[in-house]
Design brief:
By secondary structure, the protein is of the alpha/beta class. It contains 8 helices and 8 strands; from the N terminus they run E-H-E-H-E-H-E-H-E-H-E-H-E-H-E-H.
Length: about 290
């Protein structure tokens, strides 16, 4: 059977060493605690990408040359499934970085972001994380594990990476306290502020790293845009608002990697898969402009 690759109806899979973007399908699903299905997301996004057109409204991102790696698979071993998944994702992202490419990870659950963060840390990269999400994901432990999807941005922050969080609207007291304790390295723009049009014109902190990784949990969107997530929370951002925010990032910083996570495909409902694929393409274009 032919291996799936991003936009493969229009373009052959570019050679890994000559590609500027490495798409990394990571069907990780080990700590999901409400609606499941994230393991099916990378395949759904790749299949939906076949319906995309080359032109994104400004340029032809496929001119970048896109390579899709094989689906990430954890190795056998004595460590927990989550830790083995993280090691496998870290290895795949490290491969993209060695090729000089932008890693574009297709989750899977949000815990996958920690694998990417570890790869950038091992490479000595000084980057910040721009985090779109309904949730802060800053808990220390959730459901008995430090590697829950509800803890992932705390683990990333503990690696020394500063954060900007956008569209959050479901936050625990523990997470609010952690933000307050780390206000110099965690900047937050909750959904209510975005809805009120009160986002500052230059919302990325002046001292934030010049290179950034964008982590986009699809529940940042209002469920009217993408209902197919594990925990859809009302009051999220819309499609055009998301693109404007991504444009802001590309204008102010260099995007060196990104992920799109937490899609939980729903049988017979195609538009969330297509929207996720289009978001991946938009982020590729933004990285090229940045």
């Amino acid at each position: 059977m032919k291996r799936l690759s991003f936009l493969d109806v229009l373009h052959a899979n570019a050679p890994a060493k000559r590609a500027q973007v490495h798409v990394i399908p990571a069907p990780m699903e080990t700590t999901v605690c409400y609606g499941g299905g994230t393991a099916r997301a990378p395949r759904a996004i790749l299949e939906a990408s076949r319906q995309l057109d080359d032109f994104d409204g400004r340029r032809w991102p496929t001119d970048l040359a896109i390579h899709t790696q094989p689906f990430v698979r954890p190795a056998a071993g004595k460590k927990s499934p989550t830790e083995r998944w993280l090691a496998a994702i870290e290895k795949a992202v490290a491969q993209a970085l060695r090729c000089g490419a932008i890693p574009a990870v297709l989750g899977g659950e949000h815990t996958a972001t920690l694998g990417s963060a570890r790869a950038f840390k091992a490479a000595g990269a000084e980057i910040g994380f721009i985090h779109f999400d309904a949730h802060a994901d800053l808990r220390d432990v959730y459901k008995g594990t430090k590697f829950s999807h509800a803890c992932v941005l705390r683990r990333v922050h503990e690696l020394g990476f500063p954060l900007v969080q956008l569209a959050t609207r479901a936050v625990s007291r523990e997470e609010a306290d952690y933000r307050a304790e780390n206000e110099r390295t965690i900047r937050t723009y909750p959904a209510r502020l975005l809805a009120a049009g009160k986002l500052p014109k230059k919302w990325i902190p002046k001292d934030f790293p010049k290179k950034v990784f964008v982590s986009f949990d699809l529940d940042a969107f209002d469920p009217a845009v993408i209902p197919a997530t594990g925990t859809p929370v009302p009051g999220g951002i819309g499609w055009r608002e998301a693109l404007r925010l991504i444009d802001d990032v590309a204008a102010a910083r260099k995007i060196v990697g990104f992920d799109v996570v937490e899609l939980a495909p729903m049988r017979g409902l195609h538009h969330p898969d297509y929207t996720a694929a289009l978001l991946v393409y938009a982020l590729m274009a933004a990285a090229a402009r940045s």
